Amino acid sequence: ILRPVMTNNITEDIDVLVFLPQNNSYTFSHARVAPAILYAQQRLQAEGGQYSGIHFNIHFENSDCVNGALFLLLDRSCGQKPDLILGPVCEYEAAAVIRLASHWDIPVISAGALAAGFSNKNTEFSQLTRIAPSYVKMAETFTAMFEHFTWRSALLLFEDDKQERNCYFTLEGVYHLMADFNIKSYAVSMEERLDTDDILQNIHDTEVVIMCMGADRIREVMLAAHRRRLTNGSYMFFNVELFNASSYGNGSWKRGDKYDSDARQAYASLNTVTLLRTVKPEFEKFSMEMKKSVEKSGFHDCKDCGSVNMFVEGFHDAMLLYAIALHEAMKNGYSKKNGTEITSHMWNRTFEGIAGQVSMDVNGDRNGDFSLMAMTNVDAGTYEVVANYFGENGTFQLLPAFNSEHFTLRGRHKEQPEIPD
Amino acid sequence: ILRPVMTNNITEDIDVLVFLPQNNSYTFSHARVAPAILYAQQRLQAEGGQYSGIHFNIHFENSDCVNGALFLLLDRSCGQKPDLILGPVCEYEAAAVIRLASHWDIPVISAGALAAGFSNKNTEFSQLTRIAPSYVKMAETFTAMFEHFTWRSALLLFEDDKQERNCYFTLEGVYHLMADFNIKSYAVSMEERLDTDDILQNIHDTEVVIMCMGADRIREVMLAAHRRRLTNGSYMFFNVELFNASSYGNGSWKRGDKYDSDARQAYASLNTVTLLRTVKPEFEKFSMEMKKSVEKSGFHDCKDCGSVNMFVEGFHDAMLLYAIALHEAMKNGYSKKNGTEITSHMWNRTFEGIAGQVSMDVNGDRNGDFSLMAMTNVDAGTYEVVANYFGENGTFQLLPAFNSEHFTLRGRHKEQPEIPD
Question: Which residues in chain B come in under a pLDDT of 70?
């Protein structure tokens, strides 16, 4: 018996409340991310598709990375509460909103809220689905490397603005996951001058230095390490740079000053962990559309606004994932107001996102794929991806450009037992 | 011209929302504090008084020291918002409620929220009035002592439950205020056994040890210090115990075990900073009434429930202070809904509370009076108050029982410049 495909469809109005900052200094600003959400909405509602019966009413609200999103949610929620919340990204602001949304049984999907604390979905953050890999997922790349190369100790060096605390939370993920290794941490304040002497004294008894700081400070540390001959292979240096593509890779050492040559040599010891970039034909089209959208809106104050980053991809895919989950939940007889049910359908599943496959773990957190970049041509100062880490199955893949010598600690005197007279 | 006194009166209904825990393990539980609030209400509404026209509708809600108060406030605020909030006490729970109340322009008075972070009233906590002295106020006692005795360095030793974090916040106040001194800190987790060897190694290069821990752990540290002969006057030991009167003073060293004699000798070096207790006739009546109220309600599971502590006093006085401020604001033509105006009348003023004069500073935080207790009879192991610190004018008052030798560091070898050969 043939049944028309249409019976598979559901019809529903969904109020979506999106929290994104108007301020374009954020890489997840409204100007950057909104076009991706609208693009996803269009694709989902396209004639005849499985999800075309879902009518999204999307309301964008400003997020100020402090309490703005919380207060907006409160002040507009006495009447009709939203069915879905996208964002906020900033950790502290997100915590307040997700706490409240979880209390009200409203699903929240964010490409932010990446801190380790959000992993605990038992109580406060039960309705949170993280559509971008968290900092703890990123940290898996380091545990994989530490096991592969048999390193045991690291110093975590980060700058802490005591406001949004991105670098603090980034390396907190590493600290959180690497409890079995010998890990120390060193925070530098944003206001004070970098005391490279003190920093380098602290790396003395560790093998690996993992940094999260502004690009200029990374260079300062690497130059100081180079002057002290610590870049000769006796230490491994890493920086974590997930979002600012301009801060790593080719030329990241270059400033046009007299230190460029030293910096290039120093950076031969600096490896970067970043998000794995994938390219598929559909993604190219999406990228082009995003660029066009931003150009059309005339955001001239917004550097790089048309380029797709993890937040842009993530919030696009959030719409897809929600549509899939809502569809399943409603087919099973649940209403759109049953956030817990809908959220459960978003977890522990794999689906095709705009840039490739998206794998959500059982805890509702996206599995992450990361790339390890290293300088492969010291004369030219150019970088290549030398290895990839795939979060879903936990594999560490060495690429042709990988050179194992580059990752071998050299010239370290192992502690010998004292020889008695 | 004679005017009838009655024209001075105002008439208004005031909705008060009170957040106190039902759980009697908290010294600020509903069973303990509610009678004091009702006692204040009765006194204020007594026939003919200046504030008898204010009709308080008092709603008690449970506080769970996590998010309970926040969610209750949200869920009942879509209709009519309260005019005044009393509590919560616990820091994290209070932060969320005060943030929201400040956004909604509702005055909050708490005998808790004592952490240093709440001092910043410019933004998030603009509507907070603290009717009990904060931890930073307590810390003034230490700066006064350090200046008086010319001490320069201290180790802050505290236990951290990572939940309510009372001891963390207590000594954070000291850390916050004593930036000009040489301060180190040492946290011990609640789960792990106390490593007294490691702790005592850390006191090596400091003069003063300031502790906030459970009474048994304080004893453990003091016994270990005594065994190592560190209680001979070469170090000063303090503990901060603001709320649990049973944890300090006479017999606090006693457990009925074989270490009692050592502990008594060790405690000869342990001084306690606590709240200054005052007694005035009116207060005696209040204390009696509180005891009666609790007995009448039949709280048999509630140890010490009838005894008046800082929270009981504080929430009583909160009602008085609000009545005074509301009265002034309304006489000036403002409505009860103008929280900012009413709050401003609570700050920078002195009034007669249930236990004596209450002095509020310009920042809406109560000035604190604290007592320093020391063992004055080592044979009997008994304590006396030896000095008082008065926050309003910053004076440090030595009492007859004070013995300056007790607070003189002895046997410390000052660092001498090396003598050349």
Answer: 1-8, 300, 412-421
**Type of residue at B128:** L
Q: Is the pLDDT of residue A186 over 60?
A: yes
Pair of tokens at residue A157? 């060096």
User: From edge to edge, which strands make up the β-sheet containing A395-398?
Assistant: A182-189, A153-160, A208-212, A236-240, A270-275, A369-377, A382-390, A395-398
Question: B96 — contact with chain A (CB < 8 Å)?
Answer: yes
The residue written with tokens 């002969």 in the block is B229
Q: Inter-chain contact A99–B74, Cβ cutoff 8 Å?
A: no
- Contact present, A253 and A267 (Cβ < 8 Å): yes
Q: Which class for A308: exposed (0-12), middle (13-18), buried (19 or more C-beta within 10 A)?
A: buried
**E strands present in B111-166:** 128-130, 153-160
Test B74 with A74 for CB contact under 8 angstroms.
yes
Instruction: Report pLDDT for B5.
Output: 44
- B177 neighbors B139 (Cβ within 8 angstroms): yes
CA-nearest residue of chain A to B95? A96
Interface residue A270 vs chain B (CB under 8 A): no
* Residue A8 pLDDT class (50, 70, 90 cuts): low
Interatomic CA distance for residues A373 and A402, integer angstroms: 9
The residue ranges of DSSP E strands in A83-138, in sequence order, are 84-86, 108-110, 128-130
| Tokens (6 digits) for A115 | 């801190």
Does B71 sit within 8 Å of A103, measured CB to CB? yes
CA B417 to chain centre: 44
The reply to whether residue A67 touches residue B99, judged by beta carbons under 8 angstroms, is: yes
Phi, psi (degrees; rounded to nearest 5) at B330? -70, -35
B366 close to B133: Cβ distance less than 8 angstroms: yes
**Taking the C-alpha atoms of B350, B351, B354 and B356 in order, what is their torsion angle to the nearest 10 degrees?**
50
A241 against A79, higher pLDDT: A241
Are the CB atoms for B78 and A78 separated by under 8 Å? yes
pLDDT tens column, A24-51: 889 899 999 999 999 999 999 987 788 9
Handedness of CA A361, A363, A364, A365 (dihedral sign): negative
Please indicate if any CB of chain B lies within 8 Å of the CB of A67: yes
How far apart CA A64 and CA A62 sit, in angstroms, is: 7
Q: What average pLDDT does this structure show over A352-376?
A: 95
Mutation for testing the B interface, residue in A70, A71, A74, A124 having most B CBs under 10 Å: A74
pLDDT in tens, A270-299: 999 999 987 788 888 899 999 888 888 777
* CB atoms A74 and B103 under 8 Å: yes
Asked if the Cβ–Cβ distance from A103 to B78 is below 8 Å, we say: no
pLDDT for the residue B390: 96
Strands (E), B190-285: 208-212, 236-240, 270-275
Taking only Cα atoms into account, the Rg of chain B, rounded to an integer number of angstroms, comes to 23
